[in-house]
Specification:
mainly alpha
């Protein structure tokens, strides 16, 4: 079960990073979101989808 959950988190992280790269945010904010997602995969992804997409 842990392997499936890990793959799911990885896929959602990739989706969040691609979405951040395609967004209209300035480069600095994009870089900060991507770093946050890479350092804290679950928390960073959740925060991006809850807060980051609204910016």
């Amino acid at each position: 079960m842990g392997g499936i959950l890990g793959v799911l988190v990885l896929i959602l992280d990739i989706i969040a990073i691609v979405d951040a790269l395609k967004s209209s945010m300035d480069t600095g904010k994009k870089a900060l979101w991507i770093i946050l997602i890479l350092i804290l995969p679950v928390v960073g992804m959740a925060l991006y989808f809850l807060i980051g997409k609204k910016q």
